[in-house]
Amino acid sequence: MSRWIRFLVAIAVGIALSLVYGWLINPVEYVDTSPDTLRIDYKTDYVLMVAEAFSKEGDLALVAYRLALLGDTSLVGLTQQAIHFAQKAGYNQNDIDLMQNLLNALRILYPNEGTPYP
Amino acid sequence: MKEEERGHWYLITGLVIGIVLGVIYTWVIQPVEYIDTPPSSLQQDFKDRYRSLIASAYLANHDLIRAQARLELLQDEDPLRMLSEQAQRIVAENGSPDEVRALGLLAVALSQASPESSTSTSLAKESALAKTSSPTGSYVFTPAMIPLKTFTQAVASTTPSEIPTVETVSSTLILPTPSSPSPGNPGTPTNTSQPAPSVTPIASFLPNTTPGGPFIFQSREEHCELSLATPLIQVEALDRFGTPIPGVLVIVTWKDGEERFYTGLKPEKSLGYADFSPTPGLVYAIRLGEGGEVVSNLSALQCLGSEGESFWGAWMLKFIQP
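Output (structure tokens, whole complex):
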């Protein structure tokens, strides 16, 4: 084997070692993340919690404060996305209704936000 | 230079270059993006807000099992203690009383659920058995009864171990509530019989903060055996049978101020317990609820030891709701 081939093999081994270290020995740990990085199902449950609380409290300002935690998406769009996911995932109809009520209330507050979800 | 003279350093050079390339790829070209994270990875202050929302949602739906499942997503070592501590922290920071109340009531519900789970489980099993015989009518389980069965289909899809199942969660609140049939709901388990008529409604499980008349003062005791670092005024709210009542508003007033908090935030002491540290030199008045009997002229209790040394003690005030 020529020196160049052996040299390239050494580089490949180095790359492999660094990937093994980064992915297996010392993989990334998710710590101190923010809510906007939550997976879609967790986000949907978060929106559901907001909707549940809203059904009792009726406080839209509090809703906006809570939903804003999930990032810079429009609140209406965020709720639409949650409803869409809930429908696809087969959530209980009561839960979907709660989110729909929340969406209706948000549409009054933000009439120009959001588009119908496909 | 001949190959033998140059040795094998080129191999080490190649290895180092490879490692550097790998690091550049993982850190610069394709760096880690935080997406699709679970709630357990949230920063502490976000976890606090998540926990508060769980408590607020619980106050709305009274679904303890769902609240428990949600709390488990945060992977706190001791969810009950976290709820209590957060409630106390908010009180100390003069935060929202509603938030404190929600956290406190959820903590109380959780603490009450644990010892009763075995009884309640058998209740749930009995009612489940009772559902198998009658052919008349049908009803749909509400989320309060089937914890996250449909609700977590998606949530549990990739991380099933994070969501407790029906079998692993305390079944305290698996109590059927009849509702109209919903045949078009594929994700909702249905049953084809009548619910057991003797099932206790969920509401009875929750602390009832407004029954009966106003609280009246029952007793005041000195506690000097505690050797406290700071003085303490302790309060316990009891019903007429002597059962501690959580979630009762305690109103403490003094010359230039007022503080409000709730019983039950330290369930490890008593569900009807609350306390605060008075400032030495100030005189306080305490009442439970807006219309409760006022106990006045309270101040920090100073105790004397056997050798004449002084230390702080605690007043224990008991109130009864007749």
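The CA atoms of residues 208 and 247 of chain B lie 8 Å apart.
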